[in-house]
Amino acid sequence: MTSHHPAAVIVLAAGEGTRMKSTTPKVLHRIGGRSLLGHALHAARQASPEHLAVVVRHERDRVAEHVAALDPGAVVADQDEVKGTGRACECGLDALPADLEGTVLVTMGDVPLLTGRTLVELTERHEASGAAVTVITAELDDAKSYGRVVRDERGDVVAIMEHKDALAHRAAGDDLAHVVDVREINSGIYAFDAAVLRAALGEVGTDNAQGEKYLTDVIGIARRDGRTVRAHLVEDLWQTEGVNDRVQLAALGKELNRRTVEHWMREGVTVVDPDTTWIDAEVTIGRDTVVRPGTQLLGATTVGEGVVIGPDTTLTDTEVRDGASVVRTQAEAAVIGERATVGPFSYLRPGTVLGAAGKIGGFVETKNARIGDGAKVPHLTYCGDATIGEGANIGAGTIFANYDGVAKHHTTVGRHSFVGSDSVLVAPVEIADGAYVAAGSTIEGRVGPGQIAVARGRQRNVDGWVARRRPGTRTAAAAEEALAQRHTPPTPSPEERP
Ligand code: UD1
Ligand code: CA
Among 302, 337, 306, which residue's Cα sits nearest to residue 318? Predict the structure, then answer.
């Protein structure tokens, strides 16, 4: 065998995970924007197996649906009421072709930091050595409740003894009493020869401290039949660590993030404060981008080159193109164009598409809005269900009134048009290319090219009002002084302006 592609990977994910204390099955809890099972499937796929099976039981439908959504090529295998990792593995095998031969990898749905590369190495080592079983092991200071690896004088693995069974031997004081002190533990991740695995599982019983069918018993059976069992000791302990409770979930999530952030720094991204930067597993970032403190890049977010992001910015499923700047912003399912600027304090909701060199400024909320190249929405605006042409300018405080209480309607602002400050655009409405809206207008009807629409109350100045209605106030005194020394006529009212 030269290709080192395993015949199958079986992912065990039937357990309940009671210590999570959750209505969500353990393997569906997430770190780095992906479920624990999603991480396991991702690693499994990187080993390029011919077949991939996931064994389910607890919350079977939810887990199966999740598998189908993430990896439609994976086979879902149901575990029956017989308990234990051995039975789980057997159910996985039963869901695969009966004539399956070659290497079968077994992994766990709750070990999210295991990499595809480690599975490839495991497969290569296993196939090169000719062993019937190769188990990934790790050396821990505290072996806790893990299964202990028992080796012979040649270093081959003789057996794996479960913690509870090792405790029983210590209590009995028999010749296996020392096993509980072994620091090398079983990660629960293995490469098996398919035929050996199938035959041995048929023999595994439930006569042990937990009354379960242990996958680990396959090792003793293989040894009894004169087969070789090897250990593949990994240095990187995080890769073998499983999630049992929410404390471990957070610890593994943090470590995964540390690895992801380090990866992007090595790819040429400046991360000012790795400790306050969170980057999901599927995010991509271009070179010379600077990520400032307090930034979260989540989901399927993609960031181009030479971008500045943060501080204090959360982007979910958002595309940021080269040279853009996104400061103190929350965005979801948005596109931010090349050299565009966003923030500070901007809220981009789904369907926001900002063109090249466009601007969304402070205290602006956008939703389902296409804002053209070079167009600007700089201050204090709600812009929902809109198309804004290139080079248009939306004045401070403009509201796109898109909702009439029943339905949402669209607003169009044409190319290089100018909407004055504090306007309300009552949708559906269209402002043509090259048009103006006077500040403070409420626009309900179409504005044609080259027109200005003025839709507001006219200004009316009433002489002497302050003296009559606010006598004796400081305002009245100021008016009196100003009137006494006036050389110039009063400012013309707006409609008299040229
Ligand atoms: C298992 C190993 C132990 C190893 C440890 C590593 C056995 C008997 N023991 O112990 O040597 O050190 O993993 O974490 O294999 N599962 C099923 N169906 C079941 C039981 C478990 O699919 O009936 C799945 C779980 O969803 C989980 C994995 O198998 O993903 C491990 O199960 P768990 O019960 O945690 O095994 P441990 O007792 O920790
Ligand atoms: Ca476990």
Answer: 302
Q: Is residue 475 part of a domain?
A: no
Residue type, 402: N
| In a domain? residue 232 | yes
Q: What percent of the chain has pLDDT over 70?
A: 97
pTM: 0.93
Quick one: 315 and 274 in the same domain? yes
* Shared-domain flag, residues 235 and 292: no
Q: What are 67-103's pLDDT values in tens digits?
A: 999 999 999 999 999 999 999 999 999 999 999 999 9
Q: Which residues does 159 contact at the CB level (< 8 Å), separation at least 6?
A: 150, 216, 219, 220, 223
Q: How far is the CA of 188 from the centre of ligand 1 (A)?
A: 7
Strands 308-309 and 290-291, sheet pairing: parallel
Q: What are the tens digits of pLDDT across the range 30-59? A: 999 999 999 999 999 999 999 999 999 999
Which pLDDT band, with edges at 50, 70 and 90, does 1 fall under?
very low
Query: Per-residue pLDDT tens for 338-392?
Result: 999 999 999 999 999 999 999 999 999 999 999 999 999 999 999 999 999 999 9
Pick the atom of ligand 1 nearest to 56's CA. 22
Determine the atom of ligand 1 nearest the C-alpha atom of 86. Answer: 15
Establish if 283 belongs to a structural domain. yes
Q: Which of 4, 58, 379, 409 is catalytic?
A: 379
Annotated ligand binding at 455? The verdict is no
Cα(99) to ligand 1 centroid in Å equals: 26
Active site residue 487: no
Question: Is 321 annotated to bind ligand?
Answer: no
CA distance 257 to 127: 33
Choosing from 41, 85, 234 the residue with most ligand 1 atoms within 8 A of its CB, the one to mutate for a pocket test is 85
For ligand 1, say whether the CB of 107 is within 6 Å of any of its atoms: no
310 is in an annotated binding site: no
User: Which ligand 1 atom lies nearest to the CA of residue 147?
Assistant: 11
Closest CA to 39 of 50, 27, 47, 48: 27
